[in-house]
Each structure stands twice: as C-alpha cells, then as structure tokens.
User: What shape does this take?
Amino acid sequence: MVDASALAAGKREAGYRAADMVADGMVVGLGTGSTVFYAMERLAARIREGLRITGIPTSYQAAIRARACGIPLATLNDYPVIDLAIDGADQVDPGFALIKGRGAAQTQEKCVAFAARSLVIVADLSKLTRQLDAVVPIEVLASAYVPLIRHLEAIGGVPVLREGIKKDGPVITDNGNMVIDCGFGPISDPAAFDIRLSSIPGVVTCGLFTTFSEKTTVIVGDSGGCQVLSRDGQFPL
Ligand code: 5RP
Assistant: This one.
C-alpha cells in the first residue's frame, strides 16, 4: 500500500530541487501534473525574492497554475529555444526512456522537451521501473479513433478510449484530439516502439519519450529527500 503523504512529500522534494536549478533570466518549460506543481510553488517563492524567468506552459493546467504562481508566460513560438524544461513522468526506466501522458498533455510536453536544452524530470520513487510496462497514452485524431483502436489491437495492444470525469464521453485534449490508453505489457525496446507508434497515421503523439534521454536529468524524491540521477549513474531500484 503506497503512503499518499510520503508520495506527496517525495514530489515536493523533487519539484523544489528542480526549481532550484533554474537561474535568473532562463526560459523555463513548465510541465503538467502534480509534481511540477511543487516546482512552480518554489519558483513562485523565488520570483518573490527577485528571480526573473519566462515560463512556457505545456497545457491549460500548467498555464493556469503558473499564472496563479505569478510566473510570467510566453509561447514556444515566442521562445523556440528553452533553457530548461521541468516535467513529470508516469514511468522512468534506467536509460531514462519515459512514459508520459496521464494528464493527456504529452503533445505539448514533447514539443517543449524537444525545444529544451535540458530536461529535468521530477518524480516520486513509485515512477521508477526497470522496464516500461504502464499503459501508453496515445493522442489521436478524433476522425480516426476507430481504425486506430483496431490497428492497436492487431499489433497486440489493449486500447481503451479515455473517458472524461465530470464530462460524459471521451476526453478531448487541449489540442482538440482524443486519447487512447493502450496497454502492451513490458516494452522491450522503447525507442523502436516509440517510432512504430508515432508513425501510425492518425497518431498525433504517443506517450513514449525516448529521444531526449541524453539531455535528461531525473530527480526522484521520497519523504527523506531527493536524489539527482544521471543516465550513467546508479538507478535506485
Ligand atoms: C501529463 C504527464 C505528467 O507529467 C505525468 O502524468 C506525471 O504526473 P504527476 O506528476 O501528477 O504524477 O505526463 O500528461
């Protein structure tokens, strides 16, 4: 049984540490989800002390929270190069391949990660895994969800169209698309599978992030503190 308050403490530790990596004048990618929220909370405190940054949000949620935190915002079109992006993840493997998209924000998150000089992933310990095996959120064109579900079944997946909570019917993303959550079991070659899923016509963005690992740092937190992981260092699992 996972202790919710220990998880929240781990997220806070990781988020605060990531926010402390931000330097004055930086353009900062702001990911979506509960762990990045803590990074924004800490950035808000640093801004009150004089830090000047420009945030590039990855979703409506990130933009709403950033505004509430007093973080000045701009768009990726205004700032096509980002100094440092802070984001969460649903799973992280030892090579820093990720599954993302629980919050249906993976398309803008992937664009921001691509534009970033460095990507800092903030996570609690429960996100670390030796092999990616969680469901992969796949943002898809609404006009093609039926053939996509059939195709994902044909390649061995178990696809489920994501339904809204407090909204009847499918989740519609910030970009106006639908989301299919697809289980595949353990993924033996995430990079090859990322390419395979991403190249299916009608797929907008799959939640596998496998091309950013060289510029990725992972900060993993628990109630006792946090560790900054590098790809060639120790993986605490
Ligand atoms: C949203 C994401 C999130 O970054 C991911 O789900 C982690 O969220 P949290 O920090 O709340 O656990 O990919 O699309």
About this structure: The chain is about 30% helix and 25% strand. The chain has a mean pLDDT of 97.
